[in-house]
Each structure stands twice: as C-alpha cells, then as structure tokens.
Amino acid sequence: MSQPENDIDAMNTPRILVTGATGFLGRHLLPILRSRWGDAQVVGVSSADYNLLDAAQTRKMFAVVQPQWVVHLAAYAGGIGANRRYPADFFHRNALLTVHVFQEAALAGVRKLIYPLPGCAYPASAISPIDEGQMWNGFPQAESAAYSLAKKQGLVAAQAYRQQYGLASVVVLPGNMYGEYDNFSQGDSHVVPALIRRFHEARRRDDAEVALWGTGQPVRDFVYAGDVAATIPYFLENYDAAEPVNISSGTSTAIVELAALIKHLVGYTGRIVWDATKPDGQSVKVFDVARLQALGLSCPTPLEAGLRRTIAWFAANYREQTDGLRLEETSGTNGTNGQLLAHEALFSNSQPLASSS
Ligand SMILES: NC(=O)c1ccc[n+]([C@@H]2O[C@H](COP(=O)([O-])OP(=O)(O)OC[C@H]3O[C@@H](n4cnc5c(N)ncnc54)[C@H](OP(=O)(O)O)[C@@H]3O)[C@@H](O)[C@H]2O)c1
C-alpha cells in the first residue's frame, strides 16, 4: 500500500526522545532538534512525565514513546554545598537514572543513545588541557565524587551495552556550561550564574562592594550551552564510537577576568573584594577539544556574547521568576536543606568548576 509522501518522510525520520528536557541543556537542545527533525519527531520529557528513578516508569516511557534515538539528559545535579550534604542522594539518584535508562533503552531496541558526563568525572589530578585519555587516571574531586562517579557509570554502561546489545551509545563531556535557563539558586549554581546573580542583586541594593572567595586567579574554560546543544545533532547522525568527546570552547579565562566582565555587563559599579584567605581550588582546569575539532565541530560563541544573552535573560525574568528561572535551591531531598550562604555558591565555583551538573 502506497503512503502519502509526508508519512514516508515521517517514517524515515527517527523519533528522538530527550530526557531531562525541562533542564538547562534540555531547553537549549529541544528547539535545535525540533527545527531539524520536526516537532512531531522530538519528544521531550521530565520527571513530571516519567520518574526515571523507577524502572517500571522508565520501561513505560520507552514503550509509549518508542524512540529510535535518545538523548539522556535527566540527572540530579547541584552545587558543591548540596553535594557535601547529600552525597548519598546524589549517588543513588544518578546511579538509578543511568542504570534504568541504559537497560530499558537496550531492551526497547533504541539505536542511538547520547549520554552527557560532567567534567568533574575526570580525575582531580588531571592535567590541563584535559584530554579524554586522562579519564581513568585517578579519583575525581572528592566533594562531588558521589555524583560524578554515579554519572561515570554511564561510560562503563555505554561500552557494555554497545558490546552486548549493539546499542550505539555515545558519551559526551560538556565543559563548564553557562547560558539562559541555567540554575541561579545559591546552593546549586556554578560560577557564571552565581556571579550574575551576585552582581545583579548588589546593583539593585546599591551595595558598595561584592566579596568573592579566593584570589580570582584560577583559570577555567567556559562554554555557551547553546553551542553544546548545537553539536548534538552531529553526534546523533554521524558519531558512533566508544571514545568519549569533550565539548567545550577550549578557551582559558581567569575567574578575576570573568568577574570583571560580568560586573561590567550587569552594570554594577561597586568594588570587587577578593578574600584570598579562602581556598581557590584547582589553579587551571580547561578541556582539550582536539577530538571535537577533528570531527569538524567547535563551540564558537565568544564569552562576552554568551554572557550578554544570559544576563539579558536573567534580568528579564528575575523579578517575577518567569520562564522557569531557578532562584531557589532544589537539590535537598529530605526537607532539611537550609539556604546556603552566598559564598558557598562562589566557593563551589572556586573548586573545579565543572564539579556538579
Ligand atoms: N550543567 C552543566 O554544566 C553540565 C556539564 C556537563 C554535563 N552535564 C550533564 O548534562 C545533563 C543535563 O544537565 P542540566 O544542567 O541540563 O541539568 P538540570 O538543569 O539540573 O536538569 C535536570 C533534568 O533532569 C530531570 N530529572 C531529574 N530527576 C529526574 C527523574 N527522577 N526522572 C526524570 N527526570 C528527572 C529534570 O526534570 P524536572 O524538571 O522535572 O525535575 C530536569 O529536566 C546532565 O546529565 C548533567 O550531568 C551538565
């Protein structure tokens, strides 16, 4: 029986499932996938649709959606403060989110699975620029090890399911992402959202100074989340190998430069005071992007341009907390998480910056 032409197109286009679609990276990724493959072929889900801590719900998700390709972004992430207080929750939840999705994807006959691993999965002793070959050279940063090692099981799973089930699973390592839809809560945020919020609120209160932990000398590699998302179609269509790939800008920015730039873009006119008695964390942590570039990919958005977009989105949504802006910490799970001090958020950013989420 002949098919109408558009039905044949739909049959030839893989159905793509994105877990964690309501999160930071998911919100950047969904429009990119939909503009490429069409709204009907791209299904984004969150915990409100399927709780992937539950194996039965995970199985149901695959039975209902019947995807050929999966981008598994769902994770339980937070800042260093939350990681210190809830390491067992970070381990348990991320382990289950990884285990359930690999298993059920394989049983459901999924053809391609993209799995992002955070940069904090690299050993704490990794030497910058950190290339993918350093992955198993040591233990990760202790504060977020429960999170990062639970996530890192995905690397083992990718190889195991590739070998046993022929699941084309691909592990990518986004660097220190920043951008619209990031988490700006004091307990869960990384350095870019933490600084944007600090300077924005200091400007609103007309504070004379903003105190930041450390010397500001550590160097990090920041990547615009929209750039990371834009590489995912390539991995879905063209990359099928067990070797993980760093996805970052490969550029180096000292925290002191980052703070000065954000202060300027936010329009805060007070002083920055660095508290050098507080720890700095690793002095340099940047990612080697040679493997990414060899694939013809890059993350080209200049830091200033990406920050302008992020700050504009934050400022537009701050007052009413619109468009899903996250200002409250959500990673505590037992109702006992108090508000973290602002400096804890910045302290977390003085630690290896890709440390959580
Ligand atoms: N952010 C970074 O800098 C970074 C860097 C490298 C790698 N990564 C990785 O990239 C992925 C996306 O990170 P992100 O920053 O976008 O995370 P995020 O903003 O924290 O979003 C997490 C997503 O996971 C979903 N989720 C959480 N628990 C779930 C559950 N039990 N069942 C189903 N869905 C659940 C959330 O749904 P609800 O909204 O319903 O809770 C949300 O959509 C993660 O795997 C992370 O490890 C992130």
CATH architecture name of the largest domain: 3-Layer(aba) Sandwich
Largest sheet: 6 strands, parallel
Provide mean pLDDT, rounded. 90
The order of strands across the largest sheet is 2-1-3-4-5-10
Q: What is the top-level CATH class of the largest domain?
A: Alpha Beta
Low-confidence stretches: 1-6, 333-357
Structural class category? alpha/beta
How would you spell out the order of helices and strands? HEHEHEHHEHEEHEEEHEEHEEHHH
Radius of gyration computed on alpha carbons: 20 Å
Strand content: 5-15%
Q: Compute the number of helices.
A: 12
Shape: globular
- What fold name goes in the CATH topology slot of the largest domain? Rossmann fold
Q: How many domains comprise the coordinates?
A: 2
Query: Whole-Å distance between the termini?
Result: 49 Å
Question: Summary?
Answer:
This protein is of the alpha/beta class. The protein has helices at 5-12, 24-37, 55-65, 80-85, 87-107, 145-165, 191-205, 225-238, 255-266, 290-294, 303-318, 342-350, and strands at 16-19, 42-45, 69-72, 112-116, 168-174, 176-178, 209-213, 219-220, 222-224, 245-247, 253-254, 271-275, 284-285.
